[in-house]
């Protein structure tokens, strides 16, 4: 079987690589020439655990190819996946220009029957737009070639993407043709072993499922952040409350950790986009608007604590930052709360020294030399007036408190992810501030 994957980002590259690992012949296409030339040389443009070896292995076996030519990738392909970005447009709706450019490109070059699958996160009605764009191009060419469209939203998590793709909680496919269903079922068969389910449904339901899933997850986060803020006011500890509610099987204990707000390339844009979709049907998604508002405030909560601690005078002070990526195990800094926090500190006249195990190159694109970067976590603590923990990378979990105390100018820790034990921190002589904890002053 031969397939094409258009868009070689987090989703496209992982999808293509994992399919090639099952023996399928995969061509990954991207318009970014630098990305493709790096991939051809074996340089992987993103950090994703397990991906590099898998790419190397499948390239060596001759099953995984990279090109900038969509036309070339169509040769004998049975399926083409569209996995390009869908960034937020100015009004919050998903920008479909990349997806539709690809659809037009497919229409220009299609010369045999094919299933066109949208894997990007796209609003309801996009599969129809893809169908229309391809038809338009075929009509222009005066040819009649059979093709099918389908929607197959992706649920992988950055930082665990390969594992998620190989062992999916579920695969969702929206289709209106038996032919497409048959081909997609065959392609995904190796991933269905051990009872991983594949759910076929109508196209609008599949398109909405992805947004509803991300909106639900974002809701859990904003709900816990709201409860954490209340905990601080009433003298409760959100860690206790979390355990207390999480042991109710109807609630469950996953994804109910408070922090400094959600970020990344998906939740913020997908919450905005579903609100926008509802608006276009004259429906106001009140709950999700609140989810978004809470999140915006939560990204600033740590800086508020810092300013309060220093009596609103942080000018000239130096703050160490541990963690820049929006979550551990990824170098992705899109919509990362760290960006808001660093900008707010700098606006208040503070200096920032940051360390992240893998995201520093990304941070340099954002901040250049306006902040300093450390070689390791302790490097940035030298003469720091405070430490802000922003990403819960494993290497920050059990730090050497003695070394920290010696290096820091001022022993205060603002823990945006609640990874430290408040009592232990105080015992070691640090002033400690977490999120929603009774020990906060
Ligand atoms: P990305 O920005 O990492 O990659 C997108 C790639 O598409 C880029 O390399 C870009 O150069 C390429 N591209 C753009 N236009 C193109 C064109 N006309 N032809 C060929 N290539 C083109 O994006 P991503 O994070 O992989 O996300 C892709 C889609 O998947 C988005 O809709 C996103 O919402 C969705 N998604 C992302 C994740 C995630 O964790 N990143 C998870 C699930 C779903």
TrEMBL record:
Metabolic or biological pathway: Nucleotide-sugar biosynthesis; UDP-alpha-D-glucuronate biosynthesis; UDP-alpha-D-glucuronate from UDP-alpha-D-glucose: step 1/1
Catalysed reaction equations from the record: UDP-alpha-D-glucose + 2 NAD(+) + H2O = UDP-alpha-D-glucuronate + 2 NADH + 3 H(+)
Binding site for substrate: 155-158, 210, 255-259, 263, 327
Coiled coil: none
Tagged with keyword NAD: yes
GO molecular function list: NAD binding; UDP-glucose 6-dehydrogenase activity
Top enzyme category: oxidoreductase
Superkingdom per UniProt: Bacteria
Function text: Catalyzes the conversion of UDP-glucose into UDP-glucuronate, one of the precursors of teichuronic acid.
Protein name: UDP-glucose 6-dehydrogenase
């Amino acid at each position: 079987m031969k397939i094409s994957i258009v868009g070689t980002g987090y989703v496209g590259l992982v999808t293509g690589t994992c399919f090639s690992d099952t023996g399928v012949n995969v061509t990954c296409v991207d318009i970014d020439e630098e990305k493709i030339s790096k991939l051809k040389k074996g340089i992987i443009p993103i950090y994703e655990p397990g991906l590099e070896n898998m790419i190397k292995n499948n390239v060596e076996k001759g099953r995984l190819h990279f090109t900038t030519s969509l036309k070339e990738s169509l040769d004998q392909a049975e399926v083409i996946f569209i996995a390009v970005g869908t960034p937020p447009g100015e009004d919050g709706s998903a920008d479909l220009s990349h997806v539709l450019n690809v659809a037009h490109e497919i229409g220009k070059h299609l010369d045999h029957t094919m299933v066109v699958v949208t894997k990007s996160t796209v609003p309801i009605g996009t599969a129809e737009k893809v169908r229309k764009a391809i038809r338009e191009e075929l009509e222009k060419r005066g040819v009649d070639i059979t093709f099918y469209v389908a929607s197959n939203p992706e649920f992988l998590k950055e930082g665990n993407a390969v594992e998620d793709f190989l062992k999916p909680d579920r695969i969702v496919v929206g289709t209106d043709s038996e032919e497409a269903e048959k081909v997609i079922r065959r392609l995904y068969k190796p991933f269905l072993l051990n009872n991983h389910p594949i759910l076929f449904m109508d196209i609008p339901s599949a398109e909405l499922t992805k947004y509803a899933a991300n909106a639900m997850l974002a809701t859990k986060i904003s709900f816990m952040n709201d409860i954490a803020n209340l905990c601080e006011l009433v003298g409760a500890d959100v860690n206790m409350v979390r355990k207390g509610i999480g042991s109710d099987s109807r609630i469950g204990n996953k994804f109910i950790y408070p922090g400094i707000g959600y970020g990344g390339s998906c939740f913020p844009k997908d919450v905005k986009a579903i609100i926008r979709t509802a608006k276009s049907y004259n429906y106001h998604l009140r709950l999700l608007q609140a989810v978004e508002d809470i999140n915006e405030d939560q990204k600033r909560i740590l800086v508020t604590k810092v300013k309060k601690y220093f009596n609103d005078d942080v000018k000239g002070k130096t703050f160490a930052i541990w963690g820049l990526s929006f979550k551990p195990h990824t170098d992705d800094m899109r919509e990362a709360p760290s960006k808001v926090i660093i900008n707010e500190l700098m606006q208040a006249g503070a200096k920032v020294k940051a360390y992240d195990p893998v995201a520093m190159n990304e941070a340099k694109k954002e901040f250049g030399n306006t902040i300093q970067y450390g070689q390791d976590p302790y490097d940035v603590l030298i003469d720091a007036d405070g430490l802000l923990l922003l990403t819960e990378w494993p290497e920050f979990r059990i730090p050497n408190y003695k070394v920290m105390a010696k290096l820091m100018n001022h022993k205060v820790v603002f823990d945006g992810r609640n990874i430290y034990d408040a009592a232990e921190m105080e015992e070691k002589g640090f002033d400690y501030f977490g999120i929603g904890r009774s020990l906060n002053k």
